[in-house]
Amino acid sequence: MAPKKHRSKKPKLLSHTRPPTIKSSSVALSAKATRNLIRSHHRLLKTRAQAVQTGDETLVRSLDAQIQRNGGLESYQLASKLGQSLERGGDSSKVMIDWINPQLLQFKDTPLKLRVLEVGALSTKNACSTHDSLDVTRIDLNSQEPGILKQDFMQRPLPSDDTERFHIISLSLVLNYVPDAPGRGEMLKRCVAFLTSSLPADASSSSSVSVIPSLFLVLPLACVKNSRYLTESRLEEILCTMGFVLAKTKETSKLIFQLWEHRQVYKPKPFKKTILNPGKTRNNFAIIVE
């Protein structure tokens, strides 16, 4: 039997052999994979914080290695960016812009701007970053692009006067990233120190412009709807003792958006980790204020 002749293969197109582009890799994570990556990262950070508190250095090193195997903070930020993309529900700061629009209208034809501190910033092109009436300072633990300062909010030097304070602080999916309950309480307390009660620095005393210092807070809905230790009522109680008044709130299937105006005097009050909503299927998200 005569041997089979092998047909010469046509050369492959370059487009079939080149590595995938950045664009195609950026959409590789499905919505489910994105959520799983974020949840896994949060769980590892929480376990690590507990190991640090107990002094278990071996476990801390093991968890650090596991976090790095999962891609570390960079992978978490990629998942967060995908979660905030138009394909996954959009930019959360659009909600903030809509809510503070009455204040922004006062600045339309003036050189004045509202100073905004965006903690955990992922982009310089979101709605608040591109608004003409906002002067945005962006910080993040691991800056992903120019225009975002690599900084831990909890380590940022306290302001010495109102020129170093902000009219609005944005904590969009940031508080839930803090791995322990006392740290979340400290973050909320620190926000008060960074909020100003005055007009922009260059506003004249005769100006009719009025500014209400505010905290824009975004959390996973499960943090207040399915936690043993935190409810919407408890969150409001905590923030009210810090001088905040709830001005706006909105829920989606996954998130809760809130705008808190700082209108009152801070009256320190401790809040312990107390079971408010018992149940086997509930999570352990909590805020402790000391």
UniProtKB/TrEMBL annotation:
Residues 1-15 have a biased composition (Basic residues). Its main location: nucleus. Its EC number is 2.1.1.-. InterPro entries: Bmt2/SAMTOR, SAM-dependent_MTases_sf. It is found in: Nucleus, Nucleolus. Pfam families: Bmt2. GO terms for cellular component: nucleolus. It comes from the Eukaryota. Keywords: Methyltransferase, Nucleus, S-adenosyl-L-methionine, Transferase. GO terms for molecular function: rRNA (adenine) methyltransferase activity. Residues 1-26 are annotated as: Disordered. S-adenosyl-L-methionine-dependent methyltransferase that specifically methylates the N(1) position of an adenine present in helix 65 in 25S rRNA. Belongs to the BMT2 family. PANTHER family: 25S RRNA (ADENINE(2142)-N(1))-METHYLTRANSFERASE (PTHR21008:SF1), S-ADENOSYLMETHIONINE SENSOR UPSTREAM OF MTORC1-RELATED (PTHR21008). This is 25S rRNA adenine-N(1) methyltransferase.
